Amino acid sequence: MALCANRERYDMLTLRNISFDVHDGAEGREIIRDVSLAIPDGRLVVVTGPNGGGKSTLARLIMGIEKPTSGTIELNGEDITALSVTERARRGIGFAFQQPVRFKGLRVLDLLRLAAGRDISPADACEYLAAVGLCARDYIQREVNASLSGGELKRVEIATVLARGTALSVFDEPEAGIDLWSFQNLIEVFEGMRRNIHDSSIMIISHQERILNIADEIVVLKDGQVDRQGPKDEILPELIGTPAAVAGCRKTAREVRA
Amino acid sequence: MMELDGIQKRLLEEIADLHGLPDGAYNIRSNSESAGRRSTANVEITPKEEGSGLDIRIKPGTKRESVHIPVVMTKSGLKETVYNDFYIGEDADVVIIAGCGIDNCGMADSEHDGIHRFYVGKNAKVKYVEKHYGSGDGAGKRILNPVTEVYQEEGSTVEMEMAQIKGVDDTERTTTAELAAGAKLVVRERLMTHGCQRALSTYVVNLNGAGSSADVVSRSVARDDSYQRFDAKVIGNAPCSGHTECDSIIMDRGRILAVPGLEANDVDAALVHEAAIGKIAGEQLIKLMTLGLTEQEAEEQIINGFLM
What we know:
Number of strands of chain A: 10
CATH topology of chain A: Rossmann fold
Oligomer: heterodimer
Number of domains of chain A: 1
Helix content of chain A: 25-40%
Number of helices of chain A: 10
Structural class of chain B: mainly beta
């Protein structure tokens, strides 16, 4: 994971000294502070850490939805810091939103076609939907509107990222807002992606122990800074039982109390 | 049968998806004259005196038949008012495809005001599809002022799909309906205006019989400097259910006025109105941009889907 200027092969993604400030009125607040990290090819990296630690912001900075105050972002050695969301998407970054947006009038099939960038057949769409545990026959003609439940919407969102087949896929808290049963399926989806990762890379923002468990590398983000990072076997034991790695039922119980 | 030129054929494709003559009964009106007409055993189309319109009589029990009555205008400066009356027999189940396309390359305004009256018999089912379209780059305006009156007897169902997506400069659309017991009216209106266009759409639906229902839904997009007014009034005079919905996207300097109107004259009348106007949500654009679309492509996809 260490940065190395003389490497012949570039990492899939390299963040160098990324900072991001927001301004609430006159007060400036730093959300990300001087973060440098790399996501190598063929690796699944999970970014965890306490709520408010800057995880989602980091994901949005990578996709270009937010622009860093300072620092650079490189994709396969190319500086993409100044590129728009569209340009980054075309260069091979995929993004699954924590809270997927709904569209009146756009069908699941339309969204998958836009994601795939071609006029895919219902049979192709079936493949992506089956991967996220949805029966294509029931879903491809459905509108991506309020008639879909939060869990269904989340799975459609992940299916759009699968349909893109991007070099770097970023998932922002894929477990948020879905029920336990869907969560079991979700783990299988990511396990399947991990098996077929080849030269692509996956970054998942999550504090679910079971997702951390399928990671190659874990990054702990705290107060906008990298607190720890390293191979899963090294980092995960330290995290068990902390808010950075919670089991599903405990998390549910805590959210109910909150 | 009058020969149609290329522009007239293109207009027919736009408004009625017609590439040739339709199956079933039809009347094609072109530049104020009939360019072809056919009645069938169950559907009789007869012209009113002096070409002021048509009487269309559909026999009771007629099933799965269609009636096409498209209108095309390509001469600049034409102005016409046409009365078409539909008499739909009991238990009939038919599809009626109307629509008007105006191509105006001249300096004078072209205007078609179609007044359609539907007398729908007991338990009959009607699907009515109406598309309006304008083209041509002349300074003369393309004006369409449709009036639709619907009279529904017991247990009848009327489903109306009305679309005006492009090229009509000025429109004042008025739809009124009177529903007897158990009758059902479903309206799906889609409207897009651009440039300096103006579109006013008014509905007055009277639910007069027990168990009658109406569902009037309009989706519209106002771009550039255009203006729209959606004025939907549902009046419940009996135990009934009514729902109206206006869902609109505004862009550029477009303006929209939604006027909800509900009147309950019976304690068991259940009436609901929904209206939402706003620009395209930023998150929607960003989501499609993360799929590789430009902002403009994303906008087009969102609008196309919304008006689908």
